[in-house]
Task: inverse folding
């Protein structure tokens, strides 16, 4: 740090200003005079998108391993495997002389319509955060940086450059910031990328509360905040808001504006120095590691295949998987020969190798036993002749494998989906084929949930293969033929219809705003609260074997500071080796604020041979039980009973136990002259202060309102949401001292406890 502060003292104002804006599309400014190198940063979350030169934003990047996209990676629920993915990506970054990879993305999948959902992990912030921690730790363990993105509440592509996300503080904290918080605190990304959009009126690139108060001061983030590309609108204002590095560069006009602002006194030099300090800290961190100029392509391809095989989710299997030998197989679908293995936009990788589903099926089954029909156009274009041809091929086979991928024109960075169903061509294709071939298997390559009404009952198997990376086709074949036992589980709910989804009424917003009216109730939190049936729930996934859960161990009582470690035994009760994802949800019996019925607070993936039993232990800490209270502007716990729910999915709770938690917090007493009777009663100190008055009031009500002439309603219920002083005003004539003095006395007593 001394070196950096010395350097800062030697830098000119112009050099400082220049350093805070990119030198090109992908590089920072180097200052030879002071031996300050430039660093190179490139996308993205599932591979190294190293374009040819620093001013090139062209489509074609240098060949690199295209790993499974985040939607597939998170469905593995395998943090070790995702860490390995990070390590491999770092090896490739070294080979391409890249210092920072712009990823992972942890924006919450607020609606399955999100065009960029393929690039994000989950509808749940805990799972998203843990996946990001794994990838960041993997990448940074090899001396390559990451840029966690897009901070924050960037949950749609519609008007992403300008839309104002209107969200309450509690929802922001518990849902949309939580994954970032987990990643920043547990993995320390070198950079955080701010989003394009606004939050409650301010651009993220100028959002002091977001970038300074929360990210830097509260969470202790020590890296630099980089803008999303083109997200800065006023460089001086963004520096004041905590935005350290504007990308892309060069932006001479903006550098001059910063110099002028310091000279005129509009911008405090300390703010500029702090941005420079953060950038230099990372620039020199990037110099600390030796770079290897090569990596093992085959090993990375094999790893990509392993990740895909663990991220693919078996949603339905009416007994025909795994495929047996001697089966005549009809392979149908455009994406069986031109696989959709990644999403469109900045994360796009030029794959070193690309496995083709049709070829992989032939490798398993033998050329002679496989026929093919295109079936669909690969675009959102109808062609009956392709359906007719597919029907003929399917008729003469023992099983039909339908590879269906949403076209790039439907989901991508830059635009959201219009609906949740497959294309009309694909729906008609499935219906036509399954009519002549009851043994039909649908393999989906989509970035997020699709609805299945109209065809799911007509097919025997549905395999969700996501956008599964360059080696995904091999993984699909491994699962279809039973070489791999599927172990993926959904990291997002598959709803029955679009109208059921939590954001349906408010998405995508209008008049420049999108209101997060569903609040905390995103994903399974919503479907739980509404007791709404879904097609496939969060955390769901089938296996070729079965598992038994037993011997749940949960302490009867604990304190929030001690936390709680639960354990449970998992047994493979089937005939095939397999992996099971054990999920731990927490349910709060009672809280002073509304809370979702349950929330994911732990998980583990365990490998089991047939008949094998393992004990899984999962720690739960303060934050497993806490919630954010806007009055206290902090996370708090409240004494009380909690259920620990052990699930094979969010809707398949196998075991549960109740435990009593004692809070270490005496939350500050926030009662004031405007507090309602309900608020006074909810705070134990408030209730203690007013209890004598309450008892008198109750006695009076009983006397006055018990008679037949009562007003036909519960008077206490009527006044619960009135201010205390307003209630007392009705009795002012009978009170010995003014109402305000009485309330002040109650407040002094409550605040003194
Ligand atoms: C894009 C994306 C961001 C990406 C950046 C650089 O607009 O939003 O994820 O890292 O620009 O390509």
Result:
């Amino acid at each position: 740090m001394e070196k950096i502060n010395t350097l800062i003292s030697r830098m000119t104002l112009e050099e400082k200003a220049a350093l805070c804006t990119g030198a090109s599309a992908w590089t920072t400014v180097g200052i030879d005079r002071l031996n300050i190198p430039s660093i190179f940063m490139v996308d993205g979350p599932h591979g190294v998108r190293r374009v040819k030169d620093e001013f090139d934003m062209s489509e074609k990047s240098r060949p690199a391993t295209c790993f499974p996209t985040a939607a597939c990676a998170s469905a593995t629920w395998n943090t070790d495997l995702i860490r390995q993915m990070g390590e491999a990506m770092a090896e490739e970054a070294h080979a391409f002389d890249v210092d920072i990879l712009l990823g992972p993305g942890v924006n919450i999948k607020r609606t399955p319509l999100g065009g960029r959902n393929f690039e994000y992990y989950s509808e749940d912030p805990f799972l998203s955060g843990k996946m990001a921690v794994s990838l960041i730790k993997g990448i940074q363990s090899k001396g390559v940086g990451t840029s966690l993105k897009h901070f924050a509440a960037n949950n749609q592509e519609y008007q992403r450059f300008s839309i104002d996300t209107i969200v309450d503080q509690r929802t922001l904290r518990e849902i949309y910031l939580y994954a970032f918080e987990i990643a920043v605190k547990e993995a320390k990304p070198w950079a955080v990328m701010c989003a394009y959009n606004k939050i409650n009126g301010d651009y993220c690139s100028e959002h002091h509360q977001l970038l300074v108060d929360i990210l830097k001061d509260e969470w202790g983030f020590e890296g630099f905040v980089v803008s999303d590309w083109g997200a800065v609108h006023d460089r001086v204002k963004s520096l004041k808001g905590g935005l350290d590095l504007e990308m892309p560069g060069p932006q001479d006009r903006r550098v001059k504006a910063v110099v002028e602002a310091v000279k005129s006194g509009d911008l405090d030099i300390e703010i500029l120095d702090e941005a420079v300090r953060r950038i230099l800290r990372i620039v020199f961190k990037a110099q600390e590691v030796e770079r290897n100029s090569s990596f093992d392509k085959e090993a990375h391809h094999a790893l990509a295949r392993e990740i895909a095989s663990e991220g693919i989710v078996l949603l339905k299997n009416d007994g025909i998987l795994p495929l047996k030998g001697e089966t005549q197989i009809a392979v149908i679908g455009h994406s069986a020969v031109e696989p959709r293995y990644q999403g469109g936009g900045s994360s796009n990788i030029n794959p070193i190798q690309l496995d083709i589903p049709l070829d992989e099926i032939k490798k398993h089954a033998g050329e002679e036993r496989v026929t093919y029909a295109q079936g669909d156009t690969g675009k959102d274009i109808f062609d009956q002749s392709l359906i007719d041809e597919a029907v003929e091929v399917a008729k003469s086979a023992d099983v039909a494998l339908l590879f269906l991928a949403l076209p790039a024109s439907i989901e991508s960075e830059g635009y959201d989906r219009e609906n949740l169903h497959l294309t009309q061509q694909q729906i008609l294709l499935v219906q036509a084929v399954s009519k002549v071939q009851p043994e039909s298997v649908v393999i989906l390559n989509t970035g997020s949930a699709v609805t299945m009404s109209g065809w799911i009952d007509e097919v025997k198997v549905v395999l969700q293969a996501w956008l599964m990376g360059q080696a995904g086709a091999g993984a699909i074949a491994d699962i279809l033929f039973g070489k791999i036992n599927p172990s993926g589980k959904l990291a997002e709910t598959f709803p029955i219809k679009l109208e059921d989804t939590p954001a349906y009424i408010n998405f995508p917003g209008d008049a420049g705003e999108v209101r997060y009216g569903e609040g905390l109730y995103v994903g399974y939190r919503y479907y739980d609260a509404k007791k709404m049936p879904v097609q496939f729930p969060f955390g769901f996934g089938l296996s070729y074997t079965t598992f038994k859960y037993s011997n749940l161990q949960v302490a009867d009582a604990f304190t929030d500071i001690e936390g709680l470690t639960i354990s449970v035994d998992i047994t493979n009760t089937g005939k095939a080796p397999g992996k099971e994802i054990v999920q731990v949800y927490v349910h709060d019996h009672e809280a002073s604020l509304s809370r979702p019925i349950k929330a994911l607070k732990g998980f583990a993936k365990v490998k089991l041979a047939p008949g094998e039993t393992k004990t899984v232990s999962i720690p739960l800490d303060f934050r497993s039980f806490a919630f954010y209270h806007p009055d206290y502007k902090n996370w708090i716990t409240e004494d009380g009973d909690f259920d620990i729910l052990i699930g094979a999915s969010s809707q398949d709770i196998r075991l549960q136990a109740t435990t009593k938690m004692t809070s270490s917090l005496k939350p500050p007493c926030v009662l004031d002259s405007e507090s309602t009777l309900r608020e006074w009663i909810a705070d134990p100190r408030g209730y203690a202060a007013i209890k004598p008055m309450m008892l008198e009031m109750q006695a009076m009500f009983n006397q006055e309102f018990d008679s037949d002439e009562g007003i036909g309603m519960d008077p206490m219920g009527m006044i619960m949401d009135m201010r205390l002083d307003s209630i007392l005003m009705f009795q002012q004539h009978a009170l010995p001292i003014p109402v305000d003095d009485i309330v002040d006395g109650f407040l002094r007593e409550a605040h003194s406890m």
The radius of gyration is 29 Å.
